[in-house]
Write the structure tokens for this entry.
Amino acid sequence: SASSIAFIYAIFFGIYLNNYYVRYPTKSAMDWGYGYRELYSYLSRVEGNYDAIYITGEYWKPYIYYLYYSKYDPKLYQLEVNHAKIGKYYFAATSWDTDRWWRGVETLEDIGNKKRVLFALTPGEVSKLSNTENVVWLNSINLESKPVFEILEKR
């Protein structure tokens, strides 16, 4: 009957609405760049305290988010196009790039000439650090209580 079909339709439509508005935003947040706004908001407040800031490329190309959230002048960027460094910010290549110039964790031990260095790494990269003697954890950017970015300082 028509009422049974309408009832079944209403159930499936309810499931669709729940998936779209409740489950999808959290399940796919990382695919849409979750955490970069929070990361760059935090970094903009503390960047004056550091000589260099290294951002992981594990999730995607971090320089794009920096340009957007810092409101970097597009005309200026077009004159100096550099995907690896803007000012004191160093951006790692993505995890699937074959020509990664900075692989995140290996570099931490190699940066000795800069006095104060800040890193934004993934929890997986942090767990692989071999030498944490001069590293201090400062903050984390979380999604549903799980860290997306770990912010570390090398002293």
About this structure: The first strand starts at residue 52 and ends at 55. The helical segments are 2-27, 36-46, 62-69, 74-79, 105-108, 123-127. The two ends are 73 Å apart (CA to CA). Residues 2-27 form the longest helix (26 residues).
